[in-house]
Amino acid sequence: MHLPPYTPFPVVATANVVLRQVEESDLADILDISFYDARPAGSIAEASTMLRQINDDYARGECLHWGLAHPQTNRIMGTVGFYRGFAEGTGELGCVLKSTFRGRGLMQQAMRLAIKFGLEEIKLQNVIALTDKQNYAAIRLLERLQFQPGQADESSEIRYSLR
């Protein structure tokens, strides 16, 4: 496997989305979707601390966190990436999109870019995603991307696997 960090930070794009590194200057745009360990940021200062934690995780080779940017404005519309390490060749894919950009197919394009990078560049053997059983939009997105649901258990999450 070819784990992060990378020099330079990987930027991947389609005509409609650019996956790039999140910068401090982006935090005001994404405060409402800034999370670390499932905890939301309540302020720019908290979002900044979370971004530093994410960047530290990246430097240790434990995650790859992209901002999903608009190709013309470069403003962040969401985030996507691999989180919680890469044990046994598996990458856990996660994403969040600002509500004003939902329903346009942007996250589907971003996830495809991230999956391709994970399989071809990182050399992952498996890509998984976890989502709440009630998150129907995420479930539809994962199914469109050909993820298969795993065995349901007593928790509120479903584990999906691509390979």
Structure, explained:
The chain is 28% helix and 28% strand. By secondary structure, it is an alpha+beta fold. It has an eight-stranded mixed β-sheet with strand order 1-2-5-6-7-8-10-9, with helices on both faces. The protein has a two-stranded antiparallel ribbon with strand order 3-4. A hairpin with a 7-residue loop joins strand 9 (148-149) and strand 10 (157-161). The protein is globular and about 40 Å long. The relative contact order is 0.16.
Strand content bin:
25-35%
Rg calc: 15 Å
- Tell me the number of strands: 10
Strand order in the sheet with the most strands? 1-2-5-6-7-8-10-9
Q: How many distinct helices?
A: 4
Residue share in helix: 25-40%
- Dominant shape: globular
So, CATH architecture? 3-Layer(aba) Sandwich
Order of H and E elements: EEHEEHEEEHEHEE
- Please tell me the overall pLDDT: 94
Largest β-sheet summary: 8 strands, mixed
| The CATH fourth-level homologous superfamily | Gcn5-related N-acetyltransferase (GNAT)
Contiguous runs where pLDDT drops below 50 for at least 5 residues: none
Total domains: 1
Question: What labels describe this entry?
Answer:
single chain, 163 residues, alpha+beta, Aminopeptidase, eight-stranded mixed sheet, 4 helices, 28% helix, 28% strand
Can I get a quick summary?
The protein has 163 residues and is an alpha+beta fold. The chain has four helices and ten strands. The protein has one domain: Gcn5-related N-acetyltransferase (GNAT) (Aminopeptidase).
